[in-house]
Specification:
Blueprint (H helix, E strand, L loop, with lengths): L2 E4 L9 E5 L12 E7 L6 E7 L6 E9 L5 E8 L21 E7 L7 E10 L4 E3 L3 E4 L10 E6 L20 H10 L6 E5 L10 H14 L4 E4 L2 H4 L19 H6 L12 E5 L2 E5 L11 H11 L8 E6 L9 H6 L7 H11 L4 E4 L5 E8 L2 E2 L6 E3 L5 E6 L17 E5 L3 E9 L2 E8 L5 E8 L2 H5 L14
Parallel strand pairs: 11-12, 12-13, 15-16, 16-17, 17-21, 20-25
Antiparallel strand pairs: 1-2, 3-4, 4-7, 5-6, 5-8, 6-7, 8-9, 8-10, 11-23, 14-15, 18-19, 18-21, 18-22, 23-24, 24-25
Helix pairs in contact: 1-2
The structure holds fe (ii) ion.
Fe (ii) ion (FE2) binds next to α3.
Organism: Solanum pennellii
Subunit structure: Homodimer.
Keywords: Glycoprotein, Hydrolase, Secreted, Signal, Zinc
Length: about 475
């Protein structure tokens, strides 16, 4: 039964009954929901993850898919879930707990590059009947190194918000729907999205994961939706997270690593590589040790080293907390202008492998930093970069929707552009020599900061400080 209340004087404590609707039931409470795409471990695999109420003893999950307008085939899906005792503490383990249902992932393999595919989620019931979702579509990734128009959106710290404006617990991500709607409006011009940590801010209230996943479904069901792990996904005391806070509300990473696929070797350790045409992405996990000598440090170096810069010239690093540079006020008060120890450990790698850009969230604003190495800007240009790659451009893009973060009033000499608003970055690779960077505000989708990079392969190979290959005088 559904009641409708009139709320007067904004007082939700004294609602007044104004009408009673007819009895409302779900057509199928177990129906497959919220398809979300992610790149697989190889460029020619697309993964589809969804949620349903069907366990494997009740129905066989599958995806029916194929070229748009052509014969569709079926691929199997694996099924995962998690239980209350997988949560590390309260509220996730107590008042915030809600059964997440069943999470299915299918691997659509042997994709042809740049082809429009259609797909449906399905469950084959034991009585022989089939439950199917509506039809969705995606475009397969380009072959690695292939030149075509390739457009990537990156941002962090999104959150969720009720579309009807109703109150909810932890209601502080008021930009979330604005970002969501702006991305949906431009979806025909976006090939993949990277949300680099702090997704729903469920903070142990598990139902908010479904709310978030429903909100982003129009995006995630059409383009690969690649996530990173943030403190609000992972951090919990005495649970193996690098930081010792309570930010995940007891989730300790379990909902994130189960509800969203990432092409990691171990999804509990959220670092992975991803190829998209001329881009090579190395996504790090700031909630696990990244410092020199750690397992993750080795991965980061291997990921950078595995990019053939002739074929994949655009090498991108991303992580949740700011391991590079930020003029955010709390980092300024600490005097570090970063998460402590971040760049001290990683700048050698960014420099050695000539990483083009490093993206971070966690700080809820936008800031672009000059091409930088060891706290020094190595290039005075701000709108067009060309020639030798002699420093990494650092970008904080954590204005995905959560409450905004203040900048320090100090004048940081490496800061090129700051914006206290919600927004996201869009990278457009036109070919192997030409890249466009744009920062867009969520409120209007317009560009407020941008630059271009033009260069040839020899510019990536060229020797720079702390980034020279060994040579010998012998011929
Ligand atoms: Fe964060």
């Amino acid at each position: 039964m559904r009641h409708e209340y009139e709320v007067t004087d904004s007082c939700i404590l004294q609602p007044k009954l104004i009408s009673v609707s007819k009895y409302v039931t779900f057509f199928n409470p177990k129906a497959p929901l919220y398809p979300r795409l992610a790149l697989g471990k190889s460029w020619d695999i697309m993964t589809v993850t969804w949620t349903s109420g069907y366990n494997i003893d009740e129905a066989v999950p599958f995806v029916e898919w194929g070229w748009k307008g052509q014969e569709q085939k079926r691929s199997p899906a694996g099924t995962l879930t998690f239980h209350r005792n997988s949560m590390c503490g309260s509220p996730a383990r107590t008042v915030g707990w809600r059964d997440p249902g069943f999470i299915h992932t299918s691997f659509l393999k042997d994709l042809w590059p740049n082809v429009e595919y259609t797909y449906k989620l399905g469950h084959l019931l034991s009585n022989g009947s089939v439950v199917m979702s509506k039809q969705y579509s995606f475009k397969s990734p380009p072959f690695p190194g292939q030149e075509s128009l390739q457009r990537i959106v990156i941002f962090g710290d999104m959150g969720k918000q009720e579309r009807d404006g109703s109150n909810e617990y932890a209601d502080y991500q008021h930009g979330s729907l604005i970002t969501t709607d702006t991305l949906i409006n431009d979806l025909d011009n976006i090939d993949a999205v990277f949300l680099i940590g702090d997704l729903p801010y469920a903070n142990g209230y598990i139902s908010q994961w479904d709310q978030f996943t429903s909100q982003v479904e129009p995006i995630a069901s059409r383009v690969p939706f690649m996530i990173a792990s943030g403190n609000h996904e992972r951090t919990w005391e005495n649970s193996g997270s690098l930081y010792n806070g309570l930010d995940s509300g007891g989730e300790c990473g379990v909902p994130a690593e189960t509800l969203y696929y990432v092409p990691a070797e171990n999804r509990a350790k959220f670092w992975y590589a991803a190829d998209y045409g001329m881009f090579h992405f190395c996504i790090a996990d700031t909630e696990h040790d990244w410092r020199e000598g750690s397992e993750q440090y080795k991965f980061i170096e291997q990921c950078f080293a595995s990019a053939n810069r002739h074929k994949q010239p655009w090498l991108i690093f991303a992580a949740h907390r700011v391991l590079g540079y930020s003029s955010n006020d709390w980092y300024a008060k600490e005097g570090s202008f970063e998460e402590p120890m971040g760049r001290e450990h990683l700048q050698k790698l960014w420099q050695k492998y000539k990483v083009d850009m490093a993206f971070f969230g966690h700080v809820h604003n936008y800031e672009r930093v000059c091409p930088i190495y060891q706290n020094q800007c190595v290039n005075k240009e701000t709108s067009h970069y060309s020639g030798v790659v002699n420093g990494t451009i650092h970008v904080v893009v954590g204005g995905g929707g959560s409450h905004l973060s203040q900048f320090t009033s100090l004048n940081t000499r490496w800061s090129v552009f700051k914006d206290y608003d919600w927004g996201f970055v869009k990278l457009t690779a036109f070919n192997q020599s030409s890249l466009l960077f744009e920062y867009k505000k969520s409120k209007d989708g317009k560009v407020y900061d941008s630059f271009t990079i033009s260069r040839d392969y020899k510019d990536v190979l060229a020797c720079v400080h702390d980034g020279c290959e060994p040579t010998t005088l012998a011929n």
